[in-house]
Amino acid sequence: MKLFSVLRPLLEAAAAVGVVLMGLRLLTGLFGRKSRVYRVGAARHFRLLFWPLLCLAVGLPFMASFVYAASLSAYELLLLLALAAIILGFSVPAFLLHGQYYLRNQSTRVVFDPRHNVLEVYENDQRIPFEKRDLAEARFVTCTSDRLFWSSYNYLQLQLHSGQVIVLTSLLLPLEPVADFLRNAPLQRRQRWFCWV
After folding, report:
1. Which pTM does this prediction carry?
2. Would the N or C end of the chain have less CB density within 10 A of its end CB?
């Protein structure tokens, strides 16, 4: 009971902060204009890492209880290894893709507005000049399965006639509207089991 009396004010404060943040988000959503500038942000991180982090948050405390046990039988050790394989097998590939996508697009900014026919890519605040007619090929690579934690990680490679390759990842923005925007360009859709760039 002593633990509950300590945690109660913390939980109430967290709930109050959550309500205030949701209220502010609602107000800014109602009165704000939707931005057409995309960069790596906290909302995309949260959206892509929610399930892998939840898997770790549920599985790791259970696995830690086995570590602190005095002795483990063969059955318990087998159960621990199977659980560790499942938890890490679902979470680690998503974390690896997330890290690679972050390193690739941390300094990238995209201005995308299909209604005004605008697609601009900025690398380190320098615009990469290209138009649709400059595209030699565009490759949109998605995951073959929709049920894995890393299935929402996909990327779009834009090969320019000059030989330059621009890679946009799902950490920046949802790429399906961009692929639809490039439908008149030479676009190839590919599926892979693991979308490593």
Report:
1. 0.76
2. N
